[in-house]
Design a protein that fits this description.
By secondary structure, this protein is an alpha+beta fold. The protein has a single domain, classed as predicted glycosyltransferase like domains (Thrombin, subunit H), CATH 2.40.10. It is built from one helix and nine strands; from the N terminus they run βββββββββα. The strands form two sheets. The protein has a six-stranded antiparallel barrel. Strands 2-1-3 form a three-stranded mixed β-sheet. Strand 5 and strand 6 form a beta hairpin. The longest helix has 23 residues.
Length: 135
Amino acid sequence: MREALILHAGSSGFGGAKLDTASPQRKYKRVRYQLPVGCLLSYEVFQGRTSNLSEDGACLEVNRPLPADTILSLIIRLPTRPRPVVVCSRVLWQEEDEEAVRCGLQYLWLPEDDRDEIRQFLSFLKNENERETTQ
């Protein structure tokens, strides 16, 4: 069974972590982290935020439906990097409630140097959390 590291934003940095069960289909562990993102769908730009992300996908929260198989570009501004990462993504699933529409995204195209940046950011979050839990 795979596990995902879950980080919650807190007043003293990036917050505490706990382990959670991840989907068995996932190649990489997801880190729960809310990050504002831009979305480009055809010629329309709108805002959303991640609720978790990994090297090969993310859970996106938006205020509009995005049906399965929708292709969109995700514009991710990592706090550790000056320029954004732009990822071509496909919607795998969506669920709606009163607060938001949540969509599971699979990255279709991501340059290796951008994937490395995401990997380093996720590693930074994990290290930050380990420092907080040992203090």
